[in-house]
Amino acid sequence: MARLCTQMNPLLEERVLKRLHQRKIFTIVDILQENADKLIQITKLSYKEILQIRQNIIANYSAFPVKGIDAYNEILSNTALIPSGIESLDAMIGGGFLTGKIYEVCGSSGSGKTQLCLTVSAHIAHDFKQEVHYIDTKTDFSGKRVQEVLESKGYHDETSLHHDQDGHHSVRIIILDSLPALFFPFLGKNLNDGLTLMNQMANTMKYIVTEYHVTFLVVNLAMQLLEEENVAGDGSNECIPQDGNLVICDTMKPALGKYWLDIPCTRLFIHKINSTERRQIAVMKSTSLSTKKRCKVLINQKGVISALGSE
Amino acid sequence: MRFYIRSEDKMDYDCKAETGVQLLARLSSRPNLNSLSETLFPGGINLGNIIEISGDSGSGKTTLITQFLVKCLLPKTWNEFTIGGLGAGAIIVDTDHHFQILKLVSIMESLLMKCRESNTSEVQLPKHIDSKIIEKIIKESLANLIVLNCYDSVQLFVTFHSLENILSSNANTSLIIIDSLSAYYWQDVAVRGIRKMDLYLRKMLKALQSCTEEYKVIVMYTKQTHFQSNVNFAEDSTATPGPGNVSYKIQLNRVEGKETEDLFLAEVSTPVTKCVHQYTVSDDGLMWAN
């Protein structure tokens, strides 16, 4: 993508490119780093032509400078709040998921992450009439379960899920269940391969959410750090409430390492309470919410539903 | 009389095309940002300084730079009201995408609502600015901000080169913020092969400076705390004052063990001094304890 070629600029003809290659100038970054005099010597083009090539590359490959006021207006008119449909969760995260942001749900196996994603998808697709793109990496997606959730809400009519052709049904949320399944094969022997891929994936995700004003909801694993050995345990221990305020967040770490920690804007941690159908969702990290927030939900046949405060 | 012209006397003149506007923009002085933060920089900061802000995720780096932007962009006064801003332009190169312009505007709004008329007589009650004027002031302040959203390493390098054009057409821009400088490290390691994180940052900083050194501006960048080799500031060769070196390092840390409120510490170091300030994070930005 960054390699110099004639399509970029008609002045970069074959012979010019050959001369540049001889001096080890292959990519657009290489050519920008050289000063104009050297380039004139190498390519035998005129100063004006070199300047034109430079300006052309900068115009096409640089980030587009947006005036503050235009950026503000664009965000104001395109940002949407997407409610998850689970009242206690929505109340905790300020009404719903904001577009232009990446959210992460992490928890140990069986804590209810996939159930949460399925419930949210069903709600958005039906109540909100917006398209949901569900990316399933573990073959956990179950159409039957989504149907169950919808039926419990009283929607039996299949056709209500087929949106009309004329409607403006753009994608507003993309759910990725789950991320570790994609990266675990790479993290390990050669750590860097996995991190390079993760960097590129994070870049693409950020591009999608910012430029297209959608939300990304990503599922991650949380692992228990055992003090002595730092071995990633299963974390399936039940959480015993201490003073009514669960402090389990402090001993559980999200998978995927340090680099990934800073990528999502908000990280929600879901875990079991007393091995019943009850779960607690806590804000583990957020750029805009307090990390002391908690809410309770139930998982049953109806999907994930709101639960009241008391046990 | 014979005149001997020695070859050294024949100077080569580099012809660089520059318009009159560009010349003025390059040579004229940009607004100074001396009083950007009396808490963190009591001695003031000078054009040409480089400031590094490091902290873990959630420690407040992006909130801090948002506060700096508010102070930088707002005007000094407006009619009879003292606003207390610096009236300068700024550029933000956003690679992390945690910066929220809505938050910038809300901090501006809450600051403006607290402003009062500067010359108040004893009899009259000081007036507050009404919302229409607040809107106008914010619009004018935002006109001096340029946002560059970057999504990968090559784009970041090319964007550095585009800063020259932006600075030459905006003579009152004094601040360039990069949030953050380490965002594409893993992508670059695979391609360019610089492994040591310190060297990587230095390389990025150099690339940025080669594009902006003709213009005297303040460069501020953020990075993750863990993104460094173990070097003391005093031993760090980039610490000696001079062109291309970091003048201030701000380290943001969370204080462990507090149950009720999230407390943080900001450690500001220069090659010769070190100062620690306590703060909390609120909707209006970082609140300093002292």
TrEMBL record, chain B:
GO biological process: DNA strand invasion; double-strand break repair via homologous recombination
GO cellular component, one term: centrosome
GO molecular function, one term: ATP-dependent DNA damage sensor activity
Domain RecA family profile intervals: 25-225
CDD domains documented for this protein: XRCC2
Protein's name in the database: DNA repair protein XRCC2
Organism of origin: Zootermopsis nevadensis (Dampwood termite)
Lineage: Eukaryota, Metazoa, Ecdysozoa, Arthropoda, Hexapoda
